[in-house]
Write a structure and sequence with these properties.
The structure holds 2 protein chains of 2 kinds. By secondary structure, chain A is mostly helical. Chain A has one domain (66-277): MetI-like fold, CATH 1.10.3720.10. Chain A contains 11 helices and no strands. In chain A, helix 4 (81-113) runs antiparallel to helix 9 (189-227) and helix 10 (232-241) packs antiparallel against helix 11 (245-273). In chain B, the strands form 2 sheets. A 6-stranded mixed sheet of chain B has the order 6-7-8-3-9-10, with helices on both faces. In chain B, strands 2-1-4-5 form a 4-stranded antiparallel sheet, with helices on one face. Helix content of chain B is 34%, strand content 23%. In chain B, helix 4 crosses helix 5 (163-176). Chain B is α/β, with parallel strands linked by helices. Classes of the chains: A mainly alpha, B alpha/beta.
Chain lengths: 283, 282
Amino acid sequence: MSARSQPGPALLARERPAGVGPGPGPTLPASLRALVRSSLPFLLLLAVWWAATTALHPRATVLPSPAAAARAAGPLIAEGILPDYATASLKRIAFGGGLAIALGVPAGLLLGSNRLLSVAFTPFLKFFQSLSGIAWLPMVLVWFGFTERTIQVVILYTALFPIVFNTMTGLRTVPPRLADGLRALGAGRWRLVTDVWLPGALPSIIVGIRLGIAYGWRALIAGEMVVGAGGIGFLLFQSRSFQQTARIIDGMVVIGLLWIFLDAGFLRPLERYTVERWGLVQR
Amino acid sequence: MDDGGGCELSARPGPPALARERTPTGVKIQIIALRHEYRADDGRQLLALDGVSFDVSENEVVTVVGPSGCGKSTLIHIIAGLVRPSAGEVWVDGQPVRRPGRDRGVVFQELAILPWRTVRRNIGHGLEIARVPREEREKIVDRYIELVGLRGFEDRYPHELSGGMKQRVAVARTLAADPKVILMDEPFAAVDAQTRITLQQELLRISVLTMKTILFVTHSVDEAVFLGDRVMVLTRRPGRVKESVSVPLPRAQRSWDAVNRDPRFLAVRDHVLQSVRAEVAS
C-alpha cells in the first residue's frame, strides 16, 4: 500500500506527505507502527551481520551467518531442547524473582519506615549489592553444590537488593501530609502501610522490581552456565564445547526476546494499571 | 463531661483557664495556655505559640487570622494531635487531646487526599477506617458527593480534577467521617481567586446545613470575617490571642454580595484588617 493510493485523513497525510515513498501507510494502527519502528535497529544489526559474513567468509565456528543461525534454530525447537530450556529458565526467574519481591518489599518498607534504621543499613546494603550474585557463586556452590537451589539463591540474592533499596527510597518520596490526613481520619499503623506508604512508594518499587528482575535474569544465565542443570545459560555453555556457534547465537536471541516479553507482559502492565492510572508518572 | 457549669459560651479569650476543672456546657474545643517551641532548620529555638487560650462552642465557626509565621498552622496541628505542644492542653468534647483521632477532622492547606483512590473511595476512606459496612458507606458517600457538587466525577482519580474539585473532595472526606469538630488549615489558599470565592460560599452553606463546629485558620482577613461567627486575631510570632471579634451577620444570611453591602460587616472587616496590619507593621 502506498501513501498515494490511500491518502488517509488530512492530519496524518501532513505527517507523511504523499510521494515520500512506500512505507507503513497512515492507516496502520499506532501499536503496529511502534512495533515496526522499534524493529528497525534490529534489522540494521541483522544487515550488518549478514554483510560481514558475506564479505569476510569467516569459518562457521567463529561466526555463523544469519541464515545458518536460523537453520540451527529448526532442530533446537523440533527436538524440544529450546522450549524445555526456556521453560526451565523462566520458572527459575519466576521463583527467584517472586521470592525477591515477597521478601524485598516488606524489608524495604520496614527499613524505610524508620530513619535510624535506613541510615544504619544503607552502607550495609550498598556493600552487599556490589557483591553481585555471581561473586557469591563459588561460595554458594560449596554450600549447595551443582543444584537447582544454587541457581535460585543466586537469582534471589541479585534481585533482592535493588528491590529493598528502591522500596526504602520510595517511602521518602511520599508526602508526609498524606499520612497526617489519614491519621486524622483515625487510621492505625497498618492502615498507613497499606493505604499510604505502599501505594505511595509503588512507582519506586516498580523501578526496583524491574532492575531486580533484570539483574536476576543476567545472574540466572551465568548460574546456569556453571551449574549445568538445563536452561538457556546451560545451552550456551554446552554449545560452546562443541563449537556450535549458531546455537550459541540462537540462545542469546532467546535470552533477549524472553526479557522483552517478560517486561512487556508483566512489568509494563503492572505500571500501567497502577502508577500511570493514578497520575503518579507520566508517559 | 460537664454537669452544668454556669458559664455558657465564653466569647472572650479570658485568662489562662488551667484552673478550670470542667468543660463548660456547649464548649466543644477548649484551648488552654498553649505554648509551643520548636527547633528551626538552622538550629535556633523558636517560640511559635505563647499562652494561647480560647474556646470554641458547639456549632460555632471560629476563624483564626494573623500574620504569617504566627503559629496558626501549628495550632491546628496541635489540636489535631499531630504535634505535641511544649506546654498547655487542648480538650475536645470533654476529652484531652493526646493523639490524632477521628473525632477531629482536618482539612489541610496542601492536598492530603490520596492520588491512588478515586473520588468515591477518597470520600469514603474515613468510613472505611471506621469499618462502616459497605452499603451504608456508599449511601453516606453519595450524600456528600451531592453536597460538594461532585456528581459525575465519582470514579475519577484526583489528577483528573481541578484544584478546586480536589479540595472539595478533601472537605467531603472530612465531613463524611462525621467528626465532632472540623479543623481547617488554610484549605483554600492554593486555589485560584474565582474558585476560592465559590468554595467559601459552599463551606458557609455546608456549615449552616451540617451545624458542624469548625475552627478555620487563614491569613486572609476577608475569608476569616466572611466565614466566622468569631474571628480570633493572633499577634505576630510568638502567636498570642490579640483579640476576639464577633461578626454581626448570621452565617445563614451571608453571601459575598450581601456582606459587601452590609455596613456592620464592613466595619468589622476594617477593624480586623487594621488589627492584623498593626501586627505586620510593628
